[in-house]
Amino acid sequence: MHELSLCQAIADLVKTHAGGRHVEVVRVRIGALRQVVPESLSFCWSLVRDAEDMPDAELELECVGAEVKCRSCGRQSEITSAWSIWCPRCDSPDVEVLHGNEFLVTSLDVS
What we know:
elongated
């Protein structure tokens, strides 16, 4: 379960930027291609936040779907499977990933 190590990395980043202030909310954007299970990440966050002395810090997740642009036909398309990244129009595997690779702490609420 790599979600636990991801939560530890999030906590390290949050503590650095919070500067000792009380952390209320941590917002994270996760792309569909990152193979992160949102429920597992939320569960692991509840463990990590307690261990890192941030017991009230809520984790808000924004899940981003996968979208590619085909270099062969030019079409932009959503991808429904992280295991098959190719153009649904022309079946070309020559695509540029536009969205879905994100894993980003977007903001914090501190007091």
